[in-house]
Here is the input.
Amino acid sequence: MNKIFTTCTDKQMLAGILRSVLIIIYVYLLAVSIWLCRDFSLGYIIDRIVPYGLPPLLTLITATFLSLFVLTLEQTRTETLLFSIICLAFAGLNLN
Here is the structure.
């Protein structure tokens, strides 16, 4: 009986650690993106995003949201950890 509670606690702890690592990675990527774009004006960046960069930007935001939201919702399932890592990789591909 005690082993069941320990397993759930271990999975929740792993999900919490993974969620924290994902948030740190996303904050780091946001800071690096802001640092790289500091030399450009806001109008220049918006002119470049609007015609062709909107779909990748929306996909990046969606993948980031899904990777963090799934970990918040389903903390005890192992599949959510894999799904969150895949969403992190997909968000990284769309960041380019």
About this structure: The chain has one domain: 2-95.
